[in-house]
UniProtKB/TrEMBL annotation:
Pfam families: CDH-cyt. Residues 228-273 are annotated as: Disordered. This is Cellobiose dehydrogenase-like cytochrome domain-containing protein. It comes from Colletotrichum costaricense. It comes from the Eukaryota. Residues 248-259 have a biased composition (Basic and acidic residues). Keywords: Membrane, Transmembrane, Transmembrane helix. Residues 46-223 form the Cellobiose dehydrogenase-like cytochrome domain. The chain crosses the membrane at residues 12-30.
Length: 273
C-alpha cells in the first residue's frame, strides 16, 4: 500500500479526532469568556409602560437583556433601575453592575424565586464561580407595578437606595456624564431560588460593558415612582460585608475588551450584543 493511500487513514485516526475535539473545546471556552458587548454600545431613551417613568436603557439585541435606569433631578446616591431578560422554562438570572468589568464588580442580580415572584440580591465579583452576597449601607426595594415573571421572561423594577458610591465603582458625583456599567445573563436555574444567598453559576449567556448616558437619565417623575417602592429585600445569613474598591482589581487588564470604567469608547465590535 502506498503512502498516498495511508495518508487519509492517518488524518482520520482517533488521535486526529481527539485533537480536533480538544481544539474546539478550547475555542468554545475562550469565546464564552469574551464579553458580548462593548462600551461603544450606549443606552437610549426609554419609557417604562408600567410606571410611565422615562429612563435610559441598554438593550442587547442578541440576548434580549435590558437594563434601564432613572435618576432624580438633584444629585443623589439612589436610582431606579429595571432589569428585563428572557428565561428558559422559567429558569435563569440576570444582573447589572456599577462598572464594566466583572472582576470586583458590585452588582444586583435577580431571578425567579420559585413561588411566582422575583428574588434580588447584591453580589460582588470577587469570586467568579460564585459571587458572594454582600451587605452594606444600601438596599433594594421592589416597585411592584414594574415586577413580573413567567416561564419566558422576567422584569424587575426597583429602587436602589444608597447604591451609588465611588468606593463601589460609581458615585453620585459621576451621574451627570456618561459612565461604563456592566451586565450579565445566564439561562441556568438558580439552586434554592428562594434564598437570597443562593449560588450563582457562570453567566454563560452573555456579559459585558456598556455606556450609560446618566446625564440623560434624570427624571422629574423619579420621586413619585420611588415613593411606590416596597420594603427593602432582606439578605441571607450568608451575606458578608462589601469590600470597598474591589472593582479596582479589574482595572488595567491586558485584554482591552474586558476593561470597564471611564466615559466609554467609540470602537465597534462585530461580536457586540
Amino acid at each position: 500500500m502506498t503512502f498516498e493511500c495511508l495518508l487519509p487513514l492517518r488524518l482520520f485516526s482517533p488521535a486526529f479526532f481527539y485533537s480536533i475535539l480538544l481544539f474546539c473545546s478550547i475555542a468554545i471556552l475562550t469565546k464564552a469568556e469574551d464579553p458580548t458587548s462593548s462600551p461603544a454600545q450606549q443606552s437610549a431613551p426609554f419609557v417604562d409602560q408600567a410606571t410611565g417613568l422615562g429612563m435610559e436603557r441598554f438593550f442587547g439585541a442578541r440576548t434580549s437583556f435590558a437594563f434601564a435606569m432613572a435618576l432624580p433631578e438633584t444629585t443623589s446616591s439612589s436610582f431606579i433601575g429595571q432589569l428585563s431578560f428572557p428565561l428558559v422554562n422559567g429558569a435563569g438570572w440576570g444582573a447589572m453592575g456599577l462598572t464594566g468589568d466583572m472582576e470586583g464588580n458590585f452588582f444586583l442580580a435577580a431571578w425567579p424565586d420559585g413561588n411566582g415572584g422575583v428574588m434580588a440580591t447584591f453580589r460582588q465579583g470577587t469570586n467568579e464561580d460564585n459571587p458572594p452576597e454582600v451587605k452594606g449601607n444600601f438596599a433594594v426595594r421592589p416597585i411592584a407595578e414594574g415586577v413580573s415573571v413567567n416561564a419566558t421572561s422576567l422584569t424587575y423594577t426597583f429602587l436602589c437606595e444608597n447604591c451609588l458610591d465611588a468606593t463601589l465603582g460609581l458615585g453620585p458625583e459621576a451621574t451627570s456624564a456618561n459612565a461604563v456599567m456592566g451586565w450579565a445573563l445566564s439561562e441556568k436555574a438558580v439552586r434554592n431560588p428562594g434564598n437570597p444567598g443562593a449560588t450563582l453559576g457562570f453567566h454563560e449567556r452573555g456579559f459585558g460593558p456598556f455606556t450609560a448616558r446618566l446625564g440623560n437619565a434624570k427624571s422629574a417623575q423619579f420621586d413619585a415612582v420611588a415613593a411606590t417602592a416596597g420594603p427593602p429585600v432582606s439578605g441571607s445569613s450568608r451575606a458578608v460585608a462589601v469590600t470597598p474598591n474591589a472593582f479596582r482589581e479589574g482595572e488595567g487588564g491586558d485584554d482591552d475588551k474586558k476593561k470597564g470604567g471611564g466615559k466609554g469608547g467609540d470602537d465597534d465590535d462585530d461580536d457586540d450584543d
